[in-house]
Amino acid sequence: MAAPNRGRRPAGAQGKPVRTLVLILIAMVALTGGMFVSGHTTPRLGIDLAGGTTITLKAEAEPGKESAVNETNMNTAVGIIERRVNGLGVSEAEVQTQGRENIIVNIPKGTDSEQARKQVGTTAQLYFRPVLTVAAGGVTPQQPAPTPSASSKDKATDGKKDPAPPAASAAPSATAQGRAVTEGLKAPATTSPSPAASSSADKAADPSQPPAPATTPGGTPETGALDKEFAALNCLDEKSRANAGNNAKPENPMVACGSNDGGKTWEKYLLGPAELDGKDVDDAKGQMDQQRGIWIVTMDFTKGGAKKFQKITAKLSAQQSPQNQFAIVLDGEVVSAPQVNTVLSSNAEISGSFKQQEAQDLGNILSYGALPLTFEEQSVTTVSAALGGEQLKAGLIAGAIGLVLVIIYLVAYYRGLAAIAILSLFVSAGLTYSLMALLGPAIGFALNLPAVCGAIVAIGITADSFIVYFERVRDEIREGRTLRPAVERAWPRARRTILVSDFVSFLAAAVLFVVTVGKVQGFAFTLGLTTLLDVVVVFFFTKPLMTLMARTTFFGGGHPWSGLDPKRLGAKPPLRRSRRTSAPTEPKEA
Length: 590
What we know:
alpha+beta
């Protein structure tokens, strides 16, 4: 007698549906709890739903270098602009090319749009130029500009961090008020300007005095029209500031304006030829110096940039103020002008009178300032929060209409089975919502209008899985089986069909996500996410719930409104073999 096969579950085995339902319930509770614990109870909204700013930039090449507008340089510019915007702490910002020469920058609401536009629109090359002459460019005679040695000018040293300033002082020193550059390796010998140098600086800062002769670090006088332009430059006038140094080539001297207090006061500079550009800076960032309790900007140069920086600082450190300064010039404006008192090498830091935002902005400019092209701002479009709210409302209404239509179809065609499908749809919606809310802070996911469209499409994909299973169960009932074995026998065939269908949908979503950019990726991501959740819901909720419902009288007994009535489905009578008994035949008489 053969022993029964205990290792294989019979075809009609029903598993443990209650345990499976408990598992998915625990998962839903955990996700919901995570939403409230993290404080992110709603998904992050994209620019088209929450409002924001779209900036269009057009690439322009220098005359004779039109070939510079190519795919490589455009992609490099996209990466630099994206890092600039992200350096402001902007999340969900989008930077992408459009056509051959345009770059589109999308900045969400909640960001300082003017600050972002300044960072994005600052598209000129970054240069380090020696200061030849500096003067108070916009201060009236009644309010003379402070001398370079005690103003917001920067001071450069090398090596380790400077000693902490005294705890109390009657008047801030020049180093405390200004900015210092250190190398971080060894403490330099601090040098103070001589009386002659201070006198020279005072004359340079006094607008009543004529500017000092412009000299390069090598000592060659710079004369001609540029001296006249410098004398006539009025940095208080916005138009004059914008035109200062226009069309100046890197190898030529230039005039420029600069402000160290957010534009309240301005100084004008006569600058020598560029010694370094932004490509020579490997990395820079604004950070808090915990030892001294001040904000600093650290700079790391490339190998070639370090040699150039060492060479120029060696020349500048031998000069008197203000000709021992180098100006950091971006878009024709001096963003900082530290003094150099010693030779510096590959690592340096600028420290002094920085506020947090100033240090971070300067670090951001130094790190991401060098673009391979110049750009012109073509247009700036702002989507208000009200318009974004209207689009969100329209998307939600469209989703609700789609859901209602699916429910009407399920009720009309499947009757009682529609209850199982509707519960499964709500479970899928709950999982989708909680995951979207948690993925916002986790990976930066933002719900935009295409993503809403992907969620609406997912309603049909999820309903299709229920329909496949229900029809397999009905086929089994038509074959003459009762509901409980029909539910279990239909599951293997339905499962294969559902997995193949969802795999194709997920593959399409993955390919779409990889080959597209911008908002279309939101559609692809949402479609892929909801496709995965469809598998989870069908396996861990719909199937176990169907198994439990088959045990009830309403469904198991084939009620006319259950959607599983054998008569309505045209079920065949059960195939049964009947034994026929025949009466024994009497033997024939011979």
